[in-house]
């Protein structure tokens, strides 16, 4: 239950990669912003306890893990789609339960305050 896992797909992002998530509003485009968000999210995680991490189908990768943020349990599923040249083209990240998702989104907003990324996350409790 450590944070020693590193997603190898993160080092292989297409220039026009997209990221969508349950904790986000809208879609983030571009390798730099997507990388910043993934790295920023991992900095909030207290651990990662994996159920599964591996290839699926001909052009995908799947991660399913549990973590906690500020002591609140958070389940995460990451779906990674690769393009025809094997680069990460699309990420979809699902967090649950809702209360922890909202906390996570607010913390991400705080982390990215003052940047264009911040508007994708909750500014205040809903």
Radius of gyration: 14 Å
Global morphology: globular
**SSE series:** EEHEEEEH
Taking the sheet with the most strands, its summary is:
6 strands, mixed
Helix content: 10-25%
Q: What proportion of the residues form beta strands (DSSP E)?
A: 35-45%
**What class, by secondary structure content?**
alpha+beta
Give the low-pLDDT segments: none
Can you give a write-up of this model?
The protein is an alpha+beta fold and 126 residues long. The protein has one domain: Nuclear Transport Factor 2, Chain: A (Roll), CATH 3.10.450. The protein has 2 helices and 6 strands, in the order ββαββββα. The protein has a 6-stranded mixed beta sheet. β1 and β2 (28-29) form a beta hairpin. It is globular, with a radius of gyration of 14 Å. The mean pLDDT is 94.
